[in-house]
Amino acid sequence: MRPERKSLPHLDTGSEVHQISVGHKVPTRRVAVAVGVARFSNPQVKDIIKDHALKKGDVLAVARVAGIMAVKNTSNWIPLAHNNVAVEGCSVDLNLVNPEDEIPTHPLQESGQSKDMTQPIGSCGGLRIKVTCESTGKTGVEMEAMCGVVGAALTVVDMCKAVDKEISVGDVKIIGKKGGNSGDWGIFTEGQEE
Predict the structure, then answer these.
(1) What is the pLDDT of residue 194?
(2) Which homologous superfamily is 28-185 in?
(3) For 145-157, how does the pLDDT look when each residue is reduced to its tens digit (9 = 90+)?
(4) Distance CA 146, CA 9 (A)
(5) Active site includes 101?
(6) What is the pTM for the complete model shown?
(7) Which candidate among 40, 63, 92, 114 keeps its CA 20 to 30 Å from the CA of 161?
């Protein structure tokens, strides 16, 4: 038996793109958490950031603000994202990680449940970014959280490119969502919340 095929909500019956209506939905409390990594190719970058030694300023402070700004501007980045999402809370957590550190590759590992779902950060270390968005509304804040991660990561690239021209950004994903019709997922499932 084949699994039921799901359809994409942004396509109508004629496969035309449209913004889905959320007018009929009841507002609920919603939380989304996204993560990502900026990997360094120069082993000095981590210490330069830690020591606030860049001429452009405090990389972590600017990246944190950039992440928040990206969250608030999500509908300008993503054409079909709703522009009426009232973000009521947003945190951008930035952690410098060593080359020997491993990053989780699955939401259950984020909460310590599965130890075999990790990958090395890379030979020169990097920056782990986690964005949590909260809202009470008719649509979720997953895209806002992901935009926050990307905005913070790209700011790190911009600020550090003079000393590391090969910083890569990756592993951007939602690791948990709470609220809405589809319920809790990832780190927010039974007993997994951080």
Answers:
(1) 46
(2) Molybdopterin cofactor biosynthesis C (MoaC) domain (3.30.70.640)
(3) 999 999 999 999 9
(4) 19
(5) no
(6) 0.82
(7) 92
